[in-house]
Amino acid sequence: MRNKRIYIAIFIIFLFAFLGFSFQTFTKDNNQLNTKGIMDHLEDICKQTSNMYYRKFDSAKNLITNTCSLLSDHYYDYEDIGKILNNLEKDNNLFNRIWYLDKDKKSHNYYKNEVLKTNGNYVEEIFKGHTGISDVFSSAYNQKDIIAIYSPVYQKEEIVGGVVGIIEINDEDNNFIYDDFFDDNAYVFATTKEGQIITKVKNHNTLYLGANYFEFLKEDVVFKENSYESVIENMHNNRSGYIKYASKNNGRICFYTPVSINNWYVFTIISEDFVIHQNNQMNNITLRFTLSLMIVLFCIFSIIVYYFMKTKHHIEKINNQLVVNHKKIESILKLTSDRIFEYHVDDDDFILDAWNNQPKVEFHHFLKNLSDYEFVISEHENLFKEKFNQLMNDEKEITFDAKLPYISQDLETWFHISMIKISNQTFIGTFQNSTKQMDEYNQLLENQMFKNSVYAHASSMFALNLKSKKVIISHSEGKYKNYVDYDYENQFMSQFLKKVYEDDRKLVKDFFSYQNIQKLFQNSDQKDILEFRYYRSKINKYEWRRCRVGFEKQSRNNDIIMIAYSNNIDDEKKIQLENEYKAKKDSLTDLFNRDTFNQKVDEYLSQKHFSQQYSAYMIIDLDNFKYINDTLGHDMGDQVLRKFALILKEIFSENSYIGRFGGDEFLVFIFNQESNIEIENKANKLLEKMKEINDQYIENLSCSIGICFVENENNFENLFKKSDKALYMCKNSGKNSYKVYKNQRKE
């Protein structure tokens, strides 16, 4: 006992020493990892800010360029130019002012009647045809430092002036800075290539308040890592980099990276004190956690020792009682008339006790060599192993039926097997002859299946045991088949689905999945009827079937049996499908009727499509058709409509829906085309084909077409209205042509 206490004391001392050493190592590694994380975040913020600079100025440049294109493409007087530029200045908060530069190189604000003689070098760049962003220079307007974004304006391929957006550069400005920045513990400088500060973040940690950051780095700091020359060299080569320096007894860490504008650079700076503070904070947290862990471990260890000491006697008492119970069970089993067996999990040993003058038999590696022993018929081997595995897992008691030729000396005798788990390593059980009960059960089930088949007028059916997940019997065309250990999903359904029509297989598979069958049993409101196509080899074709499932409880063992009935509904289904088809068609032309056509258009528009796929909605009206009905009669008019429908089918044979709106009006929706020009070519082809209808009885028959190209419409109604407007324009302009709807520009 004394030696055990010494060992426990040594273990506790070793544990606490190990935790102390681990804390020291973890603290060192954590400081390095935390410092690296801060450095990586500093770099990421710098690059994010650089990208934000570029996006803001590039967006401003595109805005100026687009405005110049607008002024170049359309003629505007000075008053209109003033309004356009004034609205642009109000709508974009980036620009402080926007000027129009005339041929005399004077800047104008026509809206405010202001004229300014410019002094920026961007003026010459404009009249050279260049678009760009200037460096910082002093404004002649208010003597503030500014940046100009400029682009030329052309009239008849000649530069007549330009548009200039002015941005005043403030000493402190956060509009260009990425805002996730160490909770204001770091700050940013944005500079020109000469070091002149463009913008910076207001921060109490800032060491420098001047105008040129390079002068500060060159004269007022002591570098700890890298040098002033390395900064200049990296900037010359458009590269990023790190520096560490000290100024006024304050250490700083800085990352710098280029902006893709005029060789500008962004510097992100953080105090070394912040890094040290972060490391100390993490170390304190780690220390508190380690101390708490030591206390918890000590308490747990004390409780475990106490528990083992307290329960040792109790465990011994339980083991003795188990031995007694085991002997009692053995005595009870020996009084029964059934054959008794015992199974040991560890050694895979099966022991069959002596019975009716038959000696005791032992099988080593029983389940592993089950087929070699020929103990159970081959069809029941998997079932036998499965039941033993259930006992090895969570089950406490197992009963099932199987054929055991080793015991019965034949292949027809059934045995009812009962097993219980007396420990995790030992099972005991009995074999009882159950041939009579199984024969009665199968006969009863077959009779029940026959009755159900007659009542349901079923052509085929099958029965599934929900508990065992096995198919037990099936019936097809008057023939019954009994199954032994036939798996429902992996064997029966895999063969069943091979005869189901390919387009219906997923529907049938989902309906007959074991999970869905359980839902049908538990919820009577679930849909228990399914229609699908099934192949019949006798007639070598697919037939429509209607399948319904029902459930019965077996009185013998309370098992739940699912029975699926199938009826032949081929004739009924064909009539139904034919009526549905006719309901969607126009009886005269065999085209879609108006409702079906628009339903298909809406279905197409509700789906996602690639932007490069072009589509259009067309309304087509036959010109002078009333004259044919009035002079040649309605029969001739119907012939013309049928001929015109055939022409539409010929031209729009692929990727199209064709419908008859009514009377002499038709609808076409064409999709997945390579371009709008391809769609217009098909409209021209239709106009040309109309000549084939004209003959000695019919003259001057043509058609007018209204077209609306699909842009962002999401229903047929908007497309119909726009196409109808285009058709109206076509009718008013002489017919026998097509017009495309164009959105009206708002001035």
Helix and strand layout, with pairings?
Layout: H1 2-73, H2 78-91, E1 97-101, E2 106-109, E3 114-117, H3 122-127, E4 132-133, E5 137-138, E6 145-155, E7 158-168, E8 186-191, E9 197-200, H4 213-219, E10 222-225, H5 228-236, E11 241-247, E12 250-258, E13 265-271, H6 272-334, E14 339-344, E15 349-352, E16 361-363, H7 370-373, H8 381-392, E17 397-403, H9 405-408, E18 414-423, E19 426-433, H10 435-456, E20 460-465, E21 470-476, E22 479-487, H11 488-498, H12 505-511, H13 514-522, E23 529-536, E24 541-553, E25 560-568, H14 570-583, H15 594-605, E26 614-623, H16 625-632, H17 634-651, E27 656-662, E28 665-673, H18 676-689, E29 702-709, H19 716-732, E30 738-740
Parallel strand pairs: 29-30
Antiparallel strand pairs: 1-2, 1-7, 2-3, 4-6, 5-6, 6-7, 8-9, 8-13, 10-11, 11-12, 12-13, 14-15, 14-19, 15-16, 17-18, 18-19, 20-21, 20-25, 21-22, 23-24, 24-25, 26-28, 26-29, 27-28
Q: Mean pLDDT score, rounded?
A: 82
- Major β-sheet, in short? 7 strands, antiparallel
| Helix proportion | 40-55%
Structural class: alpha+beta
Radius of gyration: 45 Å
Shape: flat
Low-confidence stretches: none
User: What is the number of beta strands?
Assistant: 30
Structure annotation, total helices = 19
What is the rounded distance between the termini? 101 Å
The portion of residues forming beta strands comes to: 25-35%
Oligomer: single chain
